[in-house]
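Protocol step 4 of 6: structure prediction from sequence.
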Amino acid sequence: MNGLPSKRALGINAGLEAGLTRDLAARCQELGYRSLWSNDEPGESGLETLANFSVGAPRLELGVGVLPLDRHRPAEIAAEIDRLGLDPAKLWLGIGSGPLRQLDVVRRSVAELRELLPEGTRVVVAAMRERLCRLGGAIADGVLLNWMLPEQAARSREWVREGAEEAGRAAPLVASYIRVAVGAGSLQRLRDAEGFYRTVTEGYRRHFEAMEVPLGTVGVAASSRTEVLDALAPYQSALDLAIVRVLAERDGTALAEVADAAAP
């Protein structure tokens, strides 16, 4: 580490057992990660996962990416942050339109969250297409991309910057999840995860179809730390923050293997 903030974070699926989550967080804090992130799923709270992260890694920033607005109202989000005792100053609060697919819903929700939460709380908008990237640039503190190749991430970052410039404000942070699998069976784990998303919604289907790349290409499957770092390098250049999204069994050894291999 050179003393500057790392451009790398680590992310997991919500719902990991609390002890494992805390242990992984403590390991990531020692490894030099900048922040820890969780998604949010029906029945598995992303914000609760962040609360467990905070116990294991009290120095790190925390991000949830993202809370779909069809399942989470701004007032409920603010109340849950307060209930869990999450520090808004360390929080990257990600929201997404989900199946609503309406820019106005995102715009209104960002404004409402700013009224409900302490000044300085950072609101992140999920984006995969140009209009949402530009909107995020205009109103958010961060834009979270997903399932992109480095060249797509770089183009999306430009859309975010253009949206910010049109709104007369500084460009927000641009981050992206990058799926990473390490060791035996890594390519199959990446293929399984990517294959699910290729058909999960019509929007994702079109997104992957436009890439015209083989299954198991959008992410990193590697056998060594050197291979992981080489594969992450193009993403690091295209983004402000690369979030290593762990593809591994839910046990301490498998999670630590990915965290160690991808560490800054």
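Step 5 (inspection) to follow. Residues 81 and 87 are 8 Å apart (CA to CA).
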